[in-house]
């Protein structure tokens, strides 16, 4: 029981440290954003998220750029939800 509490606190500390690091790898980015690693690789493959690959193998992400990416992504999703909500509402009005 006590060891679970210690592990929980260590995990919280680790997540706060990620927020301070300027450069993250895939594992750290997954923890930082909550994205699955497979989703991160998909974003990289589609060149949607800013990344660097200085040695040709390991992916790195600048935390600042990731923050900008996620805020833009959240804004786009919010607009899409509003737009689809308005379209749904218009269809309801037409049907009545």
Description:
The chain has 96 residues and is mostly helical. The protein has a single domain, classed as Multidrug-efflux Transporter Regulator, Chain: A, Domain 2, CATH 1.10.1660. Helices cover 72% and strands 4% of the residues. The chain has four helices and two strands; from the N terminus they run αβααβα. The protein has a two-stranded antiparallel ribbon. The longest helix is centred in the C-terminal third of the chain and has 33 residues. The protein is globular. The chain starts with a helix and ends with a helix.
Which descriptors apply to this entry?
96 residues, mainly alpha, Multidrug-efflux Transporter Regulator, Chain: A, Domain 2, two-stranded antiparallel sheet, 4 helices, 72% helix, globular
